[in-house]
Amino acid sequence: MSTFRLKIITQERVLLEEEVESLYVTTIDGDINVLPHHTPYVSVLKPSEVIIKPASAKDSGEAREESFACTGGILEVTPEKVVILADSAIRTDEIDEAEALKVKERAESVMAEKLENRENAEAMLALEKALLHLRVAQKRKRHIPHSSEMK
Length: 151
Prior knowledge:
This protein has helices at 55-60, 97-112, 117-143; strands spanning 4-9, 14-27, 30-34, 41-45, 48-54, 66-70, 73-77, 81-86, 89-91. The chain is an alpha+beta fold. It is elongated. The two termini are 23 Å apart. Strands 1, 2, 3, 4, 5, 6, 7, 8 and 9 form a 9-stranded mixed sheet that branches.
């Protein structure tokens, strides 16, 4: 099967740069599945889960996917590569659910205090990010078998 080069970049670092077989993302235009030789395309990403099937999965014989929680950004598909410029993104297996719950509770507390607009906006963003992390982490726990279960 053909592959394409995917690069996921956040403000902090290059989160991923590798050959992949497919990419599933949610844009403002809807859900799309990017495969090799996809038509050139640019869109805004909605906060959601990004799912990739690495080319290395084929080499190892595993039918695995990797998942990321992405708070939004820009998707660019070109004939040479696909680039995601993410507002923020994290691998699902790196999400600390306990920390996300704490952030969620703090944000809800700040919003309940009815502080200035800027503080409320920051709390709303923190809440949305925490909820996304929790939703993606919990979804992955329910749907992705561990490697020991796949044997």
